[in-house]
Write a structure and sequence with these properties.
With 312 residues, the protein is of the alpha/beta class. It is built from eleven helices and seven strands. It folds into two domains: 120 residues, no CATH class; 179 residues, Rossmann fold (3-Layer(aba) Sandwich), CATH 3.40.50.
Length: 312
């Protein structure tokens, strides 16, 4: 770890301040994944960290709010470790239903989302997920002008999509009005909340949409619903023939708001095949530092829609 600290200390500025606060104070448990990211990607990781930290400074312009968001990430790490210990006794999400955390209350929704945002810099799997999205999806050789995101949450992926193409038109739909408000605030503070994006609080299963989309994105959504097949089928009907769906989910990753438990990546592949989608690229990564017996994976895949069923 010494060479990492020597490097960030030599760079200084917000990079040093943020990593020192995180690893020395807020979440020493995060030293392992951060060090592995640095050793895997080297200067590229520090360059992306500098960009990400700048984004988060704009998202949380008050110093106390910025520090608070880092504290939320630290709490997220601790709560995940605690829930994992409970989960490993049964390997069943139902064993978590009696658990409660500081992150699962209505008042804690924003706190949880703030912590989750930082995971895309500090968690190995989430960092790679966002890299896949930016490099393989947004910069793919297929049209992505009309963009739909179901469950935008913190708004980071929506912001990436808008920044990557200034002509891209986007729609984002979430059941939770608070999530929509949080994503809208993210876009506004990043200077991206323009006429190009429509943010909708509502049920995408019941709501009609004015167009079909080139790209439909579902990042960490399927595990939060009781019927992933129903939601994915709806995404297919909202995507143009020849368009793409980018989806991510997990197997055996416990948290209090995870509803549907995929137990193996093959279940996700069968779900995709049953929906009539053709896989173009996928990545399956074991969740960092998880026991092999837990069978915990992050899954992200890019699929092509060859036909449309139903109506928008």
């Amino acid at each position: 770890m010494s060479d990492f600290f020597e490097r960030i200390d030599s760079i200084g500025g917000d990079l040093r301040t943020t990593f020192r606060l995180l690893l020395d104070d807020v979440s020493p448990m995060s030293r392992g994944p951060v060090l592995d990211l640095y050793h895997t990607y080297g200067q590229g990781y520090l360059d992306e960290a500098t960009e990400f930290i700048s984004t988060m400074r704009r998202r949380f312009p008050r110093a106390e709010d910025y520090d608070h968001s880092l504290e939320a990430f630290g709490d997220l790490v601790v709560q995940y470790a605690r829930l994992s210990a409970v989960f490993q006794k049964t390997l069943d999400y139902r064993s978590l239903r009696s658990q409660s955390t500081a992150l699962d209350t209505v008042s804690g929704e924003d706190y949880y989302v703030q912590g989750l945002m930082w995971s895309y810099l500090f968690w190995f799997n989430h960092y790679n997920l966002r890299r896949f999205f930016r490099e393989r999806v947004l910069n793919g050789s297929f049209p992505t002008k009309d963009y739909l995101e179901i469950g935008p949450g913190h708004g980071l992926f929506l912001a990436d999509a808008l920044r990557a193409d200034e002509t891209r038109a986007a729609c984002a739909c979430d059941l939770n009005p608070k999530a929509v408000a949080f994503a809208a605030e993210t876009l506004e503070r990043l200077g991206l909340n323009s006429g190009r994006v429509e943010l909708v609080a509502g049920d995408c299963l019941a709501r009609s949409f004015p167009v079909l989309y080139d790209l439909c994105v579902l990042v960490e959504v399927l595990e939060h619903v009781s019927s992933p097949a129903t939601l994915l089928s709806r995404a297919v009907t909202l995507t143009k023939p020849g368009g793409r769906i980018f989806l991510t989910t997990v197997t055996n990753v416990p948290f209090v708001d995870h509803v549907y438990q995929f137990r193996h990546p093959d279940e996700i592949r069968r779900l995709i095949e049953t929906a009539g989608l053709r896989m173009e690229a996928e990545c399956v990564e074991r969740v960092y530092n998880s026991p092999e017996s837990q069978n915990a994976f992050d899954y992200f895949g890019l699929c092509r829609v060859d036909s449309v069923n139903g109506s928008r």
